[in-house]
Design goal:
By secondary structure, this protein is α/β, with parallel strands linked by helices. The chain is built from 17 helices and 13 strands. The N and C termini lie far apart (60 Å). The N terminus is likely disordered.
């Protein structure tokens, strides 16, 4: 944008960018000149200015029938007028009040997306209990199940019993079609708890009754409210032949009902926790899913050094289909390379050729010693491994508890996994 000329003495000029909401590509500049305003700095002068700017906003919206927002870029005045930066901030705050009737702080609070996490079925409830223990900031935790007994011992902000008339609180007995009917019966309750959410996670274990049958129905309801809806599911071991067939069918339906689905293959868990006792191995799976959801939810809801906002996440994940996820850690001089390469090489789903991924989401967490070069290098390492046309977004957060180390989470979006074709067979 060309810098506006300096206004003549005795007058001032405000350059305002009028930009299409949600876009950084379409913008135009509105310049409004006014006299004597900055010289006496009277409140009525500022009010008149802001009213003019608000009128410009409404004109832009009316002419082009699109939502716009205004940004005060510069306030110019005579060189002898002091306090220009302070006055510029004041004008912008007053503009927000005039055009919306609210302060910047109020608008910022409203603009923070509401994140909801729904654990569905037995495995889903176990996962949200784990997430609840981790105290995810900015997220509401819901346990959703057709088994009243299991639901009673689950930790969550709110619990929803699915399909009482269908299941009588006894669960679905491993029948996905029963889980589907139970979710359909409770559709009104699901719509209530997801209403107003900007981001909804639905997490479950596929292969059983409630999780497999209810999760696609619940995901569709959440998506229809306008929320970005991400599934996070586990699939059975190869030896579980009957559950594999159900999981394959449930996964297809979930992909159709969600914006994207992150899949964790229990068979790949052997690479992470193969030598642990069974209970601890599944605890690792819960921990990994909890880490992912916590990381995404807090990155979206809480400002950080390099933020991934909801718009970034939507651009990356909408229509991505199947996604894979990997985690890595590194310490010392090679912490960046070690963390990122481990996250790429130990994806918890067989991804085949990672160069076919349509996008990548990279989340970096490091200690107080993490540098800009560390974060930039992490992004470069991912870009080197995937297709040049793939979209890449990354965020970075500082965690003072990490000493001389780095944690990396890499989500590969829109992957073509051989696992889905070869292994999910009846």
């Amino acid at each position: 944008m060309q810098r506006p000329r300096e206004a003549e003495a005795g007058s001032s000029e405000t350059a305002v960018t009028v930009r299409e909401a949600g876009s950084s590509l379409r913008e135009r500049v509105v310049r409004i000149s006014h006299r004597s305003f900055l010289e006496d700095q009277k409140d009525e002068g500022r009010t008149i200015l802001c009213e003019r700017l608000a009128d410009a906003l409404r004109t832009a919206e009316r002419d082009e029938e699109k939502p716009y927002y205004l940004k005060v870029n510069y306030v110019y005045s005579r060189p002898d007028v002091s306090g220009k930066e302070k006055l510029e901030r004041s004008v912008e705050e007053d503009l927000m009040k005039v055009s919306s009737g609210k302060s910047i702080e109020e608008i910022a609070k409203e603009a923070t997306p509401q994140v909801s996490v729904l654990g569905i079925g037995g495995a889903g409830c176990n996962i949200v209990s784990w997430i609840k223990e981790k105290e995810v900031s900015g997220a509401r935790i819901f346990a959703v199940h057709s088994d009243a007994q299991h639901l009673s011992v689950t930790r969550a902000d709110r619990k929803v019993l699915l399909g009482y008339n269908v299941c009588r609180g006894l669960g679905c007995g491993g029948f996905p079609e029963k889980g589907t009917r139970a979710a359909e019966e409770s559709a009104g309750e699901i719509q209530k708890i997801t209403a107003g959410s900007g981001l909804v996670f639905v997490t479950a274990g596929l292969g059983g009754g409630t999780g497999t049958g209810a999760t696609p129905v619940i995901s569709k309801i959440a998506r229809e409210t306008g929320a970005l809806t991400l599934g996070v599911v586990t699939t059975p071991f190869k030896v579980e032949r009957a559950r594999l067939a159900k999981a394959k069918d449930g996964l297809k339906k979930l992909v159709d009902a969600s914006d994207a689905v992150v899949v964790i293959d229990n068979n790949r868990l052997r690479e992470v926790a193969g030598n642990l006792p069974l209970g601890k191995a599944f605890a690792v799976a819960n921990e990994l899913i909890a880490m992912f959801i916590k990381s995404i939810a807090e990155t979206v809801a809480i400002p950080s050094l390099m933020n991934v906002d909801l718009a970034d996440l939507k651009a990356m994940m909408t229509g991505s289909g199947i996604c894979a996820i990997g985690f890595g850690e590194g310490t010392g001089d090679t912490k960046v390379r070690d963390a990122v390469e481990k996250a790429l090489d130990t994806q918890l789903l067989d991804t085949g050729d990672v160069r076919k991924a349509k996008g990548a989401l990279v989340l970096i967490e490091g200690g107080d010693d993490m540098t800009l070069e560390d974060v930039n290098r992490a992004g470069e390492l991912v870009i080197e491994r995937i297709a040049p046309s793939a979209k890449v977004s990354w965020g970075a957060r500082v965690n003072s508890a990490i000493q001389d180390g780095m944690h990396a989470t890499v989500v590969l979006a829109g992957i073509d996994s051989p696992f889905l074709v070869k292994n999910l067979q009846p």
